[in-house]
Automatic annotation (TrEMBL):
It comes from the Bacteria. Belongs to the KAE1 / TsaD family. TsaB subfamily. The gene is tsaB. It comes from Pseudoxanthomonas daejeonensis. Signal peptide: none annotated. InterPro entries: ATPase_NBD, Gcp-like_dom, T6A_TsaB. Residues 28-222 form the Gcp-like domain. This is tRNA threonylcarbamoyladenosine biosynthesis protein TsaB. Pfam families: TsaD.
């Protein structure tokens, strides 16, 4: 199985090459440089491994949620490469990718969050099962004060992602009695995306390139002036 993965939904840009269980990755926190870096990194990874593009079985992509521009770019890159090679695309939730990078030694229940700006966070709850993940709830975009853990047996969770740093760490403060650990600096990585995508490909979850769609979770990309004033007032 040979798979190329693009994850650009946050300020981190990363590309990974999955080769029969082995993963090579380029990763950098590089706001506004994703379009400049992603394809050259992909070519470099393939060259280093001695693999031609035509040898790839599929292209993986972090479908979001995340920054609108970054998500659109990732989908466009994956579709462009896949269409040129006549290969399928494996879209994977960026929140699942983030959860997959959580500490293996931590609790198996993982709350993955990304700062969505505009006073909101993207949030998804997952359960680690062996080398895979199971979603415990639908992914949402909502205010940090509205995030709740799914009903369960009261076990501990670990939190990952920049949503825990949003609103002065409100989410971590609210859920601190249930969280064994929090990594508020964690960002999704293409290496984790590649591993999840390889498993998804084996399950038959790849789609035709033109069917790969972004997961924005919300339609509006900016607050109106009235909404901005209301948000500022709520923070006083």
């Amino acid at each position: 199985m040979k798979l190329l993965a693009f994850e650009t939904a946050t300020e981190a840009c990363s590309v990974a090459l999955y080769l029969d269980g082995q993963v090579r990755e380029r990763f950098e926190i590089a706001p506004r440089r994703h379009a400049e870096l992603a394809l050259p990194w992909a070519d470099a990874l393939l060259a280093e491994a001695g693999v031609a593009r035509t040898q790839l079985d599929a292209i993986a992509v972090g479908r979001g949620p995340g920054a609108f521009t970054g998500v659109r770019l990732a989908i466009a890159l994956a579709q462009g490469v896949a269409l040129a090679l006549d290969r399928p695309v494996v879209p994977v939730s960026t929140l699942a990718v983030l959860a997959a990078g959580a500490a293996v030694a931590g609790p198996a229940r993982i709350l993955a969050t990304i700062d969505a700006r505009m006073g909101e966070v993207y949030a998804g709850a997952f359960l680690r099962e062996g080398d895979g993940l199971a979603a415990l709830d639908v992914e949402r975009v909502l205010a940090p004060g509205a995030v709740e853990l799914p009903a369960d047996d009261g076990g501990e969770w670990q939190g990952v992602g920049t949503g825990f740093a949003a609103a002065d760490g409100l989410l971590a403060q609210r859920l601190q009695s249930r969280l064994a650990a929090v990594d508020a600096a964690a960002l999704p990585r293409a290496a984790d995306l590649a591993r999840l995508a390889a498993a998804a490909f084996a399950r038959g979850e790849a789609v035709a390139a033109e069917r790969a769609e972004p997961a924005y979770l919300r339609d509006n990309v900016a607050l109106t002036l009235v909404e901005q004033q209301a948000l500022r007032a709520s923070r006083r």
